[in-house]
Amino acid sequence: MELKNGSRIGIIGGGPAGSFSAIFLLDLARQVDLDIQVDIFEPRDFTLTGPRGCNMCGGVISESLVQKMASDGIHLPDEILIDTIEAYTLHSDISSVRIDDDREEMRIACIYRGGGPTGAETQTPLPKISFDGYLLELAKTKGARHIPERARGLEWDEGFPCIHWPEDNQQRYDLVVGGLGLNSPGLKMFDGLDFGYLPPKSTKAFISELYFGDEEVERLLGHSMHVFILNIPRVKFIAITPKGPYATLIILGDGIDQALVKQVYGAPEIKKCLPQGWEIPVQTCTCQPKINIGAPVNPFTNRVVMVGDCSSSRLYKDGIGAAYRLAKSLAYTAISHGVSEEDFQRFFMPTCRSLDWDNRLGHLLFFGDALLRPYSWIQEAIITVIRQEQSDPDSPRHLSSALWDTFTGSSSYRNIFRRSLHPVVLFNLVRVLLTNLARQLLHR
Ligand SMILES: Cc1cc2nc3c(=O)[nH]c(=O)nc-3n(C[C@H](O)[C@H](O)[C@H](O)COP(=O)(O)OP(=O)(O)OC[C@H]3O[C@@H](n4cnc5c(N)ncnc54)[C@H](O)[C@@H]3O)c2cc1C
User: Fold this and answer.
1) What does the pLDDT look like over 119-142, one tens digit per residue?
2) Which domains does the chain have, with CATH numbers?
3) Of 224, 244, 241, 214, nearest in space to 86 by CA
4) Which residue from 19, 57, 291 has its CB within 8 A of the most atoms of ligand 1, so it is best to mutate?
5) Which residues form ligand 1's pocket by a CB distance below 6 Å?
6) For tag attachment on the chain, is the N or C end more exposed, with fewer CB atoms within 10 Å?
7) 311 or 237, which is more confident?
C-alpha cells in the first residue's frame, strides 16, 4: 500500500499537527520526486482575535523546538514571537525563588496561536501573523490546498477513506490524516470508519489572557514565567506567562471548574503577580480547552492515521513539539514505506510509544509531587537547594534545570527524573532537611 504519483492525502485539521504533517509530507515527496496532492480541511481563520481564530493554548515553545523547526526550513518570523522568557520564578505556599537558566537553548518563546485575545484588535498592536496561521500558509506555499471547511463525515469507499464536507462535497483519498485536536466533536466521525480508534483521555484546563498593559506586565512579571505549586486540591500547577501587554494565566489539573478558578485568583501568591486592587474584568478572553493526559487506542489503520493531540502528546507541556515529532514520523512512514496498518505499526508507532512511555514517568512525577505538596518542610528544603544551586555559579544545577524542563518541555520526563534523583540532589536535600530539623530542635 504505497503512495504513487497523483496520490491524494486529506488532512482534517490545520492546527500544528495538520500543518506540520502537510509540510513534511510535501517536503519528503519532493525529495523522492513523488507528485502528491495534499488537502487541508481547516475552517478556522487564524487572523481573527479571540476563540474564532485560536486553538486555545499557553503558547510557550522551547528554543530547542524553534531550532529544530529552523533546521527543517521552518523559520518563525520575528513578528510571531511576542516575548522571550529567560528565567522562571517558582512560587510555593511558603516562598519563591527565581531560576535563571544560562543554557541558551533552554530559553522559551511566547506565541499566539491566533490573532490574539478577544479585544486585542482595539488595545494594542499585536502580531499580524499567528503561529498556526504561519504554519498553514507555509504548507500552502509548499503546494497544499486549503479547504476552509469543516469535515463532516468519513466512510470507506472500496477500501479508501472518503471525506465529506458541506454542500454534498466528498473526496476519496489514498491517506486520511486526523489532526483535529481534542476539542472537536468531529472526532466522532472516525467511528464511521470502524477501526477501533478511541481518543486519548483528557481533562479540562483553564486559560485566561489578562490585560495589564506593557509596563505593568514588565514590572510584575519581567521576562520570567511564574510557576505556582500551591496546596490547592486538584491543581497540578499554575503558570503566569508574560506576553507583551498580556499575562497568560494557565491552570492545569483535574477537572478545573469555576470554584477552583476563584480559589486560584484568591491565593496570596497569585495576587502578588496581579496589579494591586485588580479585579477580574467581566469580559476576559478565557477558555477551558481539553488537555491530553493519556494515550489513544488504535490511532491508525490502513490509509488512516491520527496525529497531534488526538493521538499521542506530551503530558502537560510541549504539545506543539509532540505534534511536530508525530507529523515527521508519519511523513517518513507514508513516503518512505507506505500507508498500511503494518507500515504505521512498524515505523510510526515507536514514536507514539516513546511519548506514551515518557508520559507515564510524567504521571509518576506529578503523583510524587501531589504526595509531598502538603508538607511545607519538604517544599522549603527544595527551594533552599534551588537557591543554593542558583547562588553558586560552579554548582551543577540539576534540580533547577529539571524543574525548568518540567514546565517548558525542553526535555523528556525520563531526563527530568534522572536529574531530580541525581545523588548530588538527594544528598543536598537530605542535608538541608537535617539542618532545618536541627535548627528547629535547638529553638524549642
Ligand atoms: C491549557 C493548555 C495549555 C497549553 N499550553 C501549551 C504550551 O504552552 N506549549 C505547547 O507546546 N503546547 C501547549 N498546549 C498543547 C497544545 O495546545 C496542543 O498540543 C496543540 O494545539 C496540538 O495541536 P493539534 O494540531 O493536534 O490540535 P489543535 O491545535 O487543537 O488543532 C486542531 C485543528 O483542527 C481543526 N478541526 C477540528 N475539527 C475539524 C473538522 N471537523 N474539520 C476540519 N478541521 C477541524 C480545528 O479548527 C483546529 O484548527 C496546551 C494545551 C492546553 C489545553
Assistant:
1) 777 766 666 689 999 999 999 999
2) 8-46+130-198+296-360 (3.50.50.60), 74-123+206-288 (3.30.9), 375-442 (no CATH)
3) 224
4) 57
5) 12-18, 41-44, 55, 57-61, 150-151, 179-181, 183-184, 186, 205, 207, 250, 289, 291, 308-309, 313, 318-321, 323
6) C
7) 311
Alpha carbon distance 275, 177 (integer Å): 45
Helix (H, G, I), strand (E, B) or coil at 411: coil
Can you point out the beta strands (E) in 152-220? 153-157, 160-165, 169-172, 175-178, 202-204, 206-211
Q: Which of 181, 359, 185, 208 is nearest to 273 (CA)?
A: 208
Read off the pTM. Answer: 0.93
Which ligand 1 atom is nearest residue 18's CA?
Answer: 25
Question: Which stretches of 285-393 are DSSP H helices?
Answer: 319-336, 341-343, 349-372, 376-391
Distance CA 74, CA 160 (A): 32
Banded pLDDT at 321 (limits 50, 70, 90): very high
